[in-house]
Amino acid sequence: MRGVHPPEDTRQRITFFRLRASIESGLGNSKAAAADMELAARLAPEDAQLQAAAALSRLEVQLETHADPAVTLKALRGVQLPVEKLLEVRLRTGEVLSRAHRYGEAAEDLADASRMAPNRADIHFNLALARYYNGQWDAALESAERAKTLEDSGATESLLGDIQEKRGDALAAVHSYQAAVSLEPNVEQHRLSLATELLKHQTFDAAFTSRFSWDCLTTWWIARRMQFARCWKLTGSRARTGWPRAILAKSPCKIRPLRIRVP
How far apart are CA 94 and CA 36, in angstroms? Predict the structure, then answer.
């Protein structure tokens, strides 16, 4: 559309610039998209929603180019809009900041969004994620627990496991990873997280025994294979790992060990 002349009518001109900005954004040209949004915004300075949209486009470019976004963020956080439109701006701002790994600032906007829509589990989940990546373990736990209360899912339980691991509560982490596997048994990442946690903390066998079943054996076996592969890589010899006898002896499951053939 670069070769197309913008129409003379103001409203049509605004629509033209916004449409071109949308196309450019879809093509990954955020700088050109932001420039067109600025052109549209200048034609309607009284349109707060359009000003916010232009500021969001400007924010993306500033973050990509490592420019200081302080003025733009101040404008976005001071915009006056109806609650439902303001919620969209907060969520979009949080998303853009999160993509730029500015999790502390993203958490501010997502916290505002969670207050505007306290019953939306997805907002509390995203807030927990931003706080987790920002190292705010207790605040992340609070948000994740709120998300779980509203709508539990494997992703939420897995995030809770990650948070509990960071907080040093390994047993709570394992319970959350177990819940994630139960809720979404076909998601391999949940089993991998549980297996990894079992490898890290091998002193909780008694606590696990009453909770594990065939799923436990499957996940435990993944963990042991990971451990065996790691030992084999370090030693270069199957014999020196003492596998499988030493590994099978540590099974947390009350199941007779199977006769395993090493591939």
Answer: 22
